[in-house]
């Protein structure tokens, strides 16, 4: 082994090799990655839970028995309802009251489709203009069905129609298919698609609604 001497001939011993640096795979980076991932997932979970909680709160506020949005048929006019050769000619008008009793919640009616049924067969359709209903507000919808539509009545259905024709009192169902959003302060919910069914309607031809026809409607999701 060669020995190192100074310029003046002095001996300083063997040369000291440079230190070696060993890189040992550490756990710091992987731990940091895991912690960041867990933190991110927890934030996502808490955000989702908060949104779900807000959604449930709004739905509870709107549809609880005290402050439930109510639909009610107030006026009906049936001036034509004639079934011949499997064709139904009709002229029918409804006024529907929508009452929002909530103090802080407004409702966006983004889509309103009105449908009329006789013996579970649809014969009338109307698309109504979207609107916003403020809190503690009553809105009246005017729904008009007029025209001619193929409707097949056989057996018991035809017997029922002839019986109602003789009495001048018809059992007609009104259905509203909605797409709505709720507004609480500056917060707006996602869209909901409830159906409003008014199926306890006994409508006389050219007359006032008969006793026993409540006009109340049910909300179904």
UniProtKB/TrEMBL annotation:
Predominant subcellular localization, coarse grouping: membrane
Alphabetized InterPro entries for the sequence: LEA_2 (IPR004864), NDR1-like (IPR044839)
Domain of life (superkingdom): Eukaryota
Membrane topology qualifier: Single-pass membrane protein
Keyword set, alphabetical order: Membrane, Transmembrane, Transmembrane helix
Subcellular location: Membrane
Annotated TM spans: 40-63
Alphabetical list of Pfam families matching this protein: LEA_2 (PF03168)
Domain Late embryogenesis abundant protein LEA-2 subgroup, residue spans: 96-194
PANTHER family: NDR1_HIN1-LIKE PROTEIN 3, OS05G0367900 PROTEIN
UniProt protein name: Late embryogenesis abundant protein LEA-2 subgroup domain-containing protein
């Amino acid at each position: 082994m060669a020995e190192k001497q100074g310029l003046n001939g002095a001996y300083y011993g063997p040369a000291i090799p440079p230190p070696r640096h060993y890189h040992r795979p550490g756990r710091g980076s992987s731990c940091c990655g895991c912690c960041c991932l867990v933190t991110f997932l927890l934030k996502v979970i808490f955000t989702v839970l908060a949104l779900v909680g807000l959604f449930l709160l709004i739905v509870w506020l709107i549809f609880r028995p005290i402050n439930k949005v109510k639909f009610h048929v107030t006026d009906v006019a049936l001036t034509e309802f004639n079934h011949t050769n499997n064709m139904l000619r009709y002229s029918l008008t409804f006024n529907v009251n929508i009452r929002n009793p909530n103090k802080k919640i407004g409702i966006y009616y983004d889509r309103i489709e009105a449908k009329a049924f006789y013996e579970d067969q649809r014969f009338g359709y109307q698309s109504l203009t979207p609107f916003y209903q403020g809190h503690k507000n009553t809105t009246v919808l005017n729904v008009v069905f007029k025209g001619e539509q193929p409707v097949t009545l056989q057996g018991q259905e035809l017997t029922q129609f002839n019986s109602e024709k003789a009495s001048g009192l018809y059992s007609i169902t009104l259905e509203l298919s909605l797409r709505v959003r709720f507004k609480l302060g500056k917060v707006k919910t996602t869209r909901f698609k409830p159906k409003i069914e008014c199926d306890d309607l006994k409508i006389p031809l050219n007359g006032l609604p008969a006793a026993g026809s409540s006009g109340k409607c049910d909300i179904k999701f």
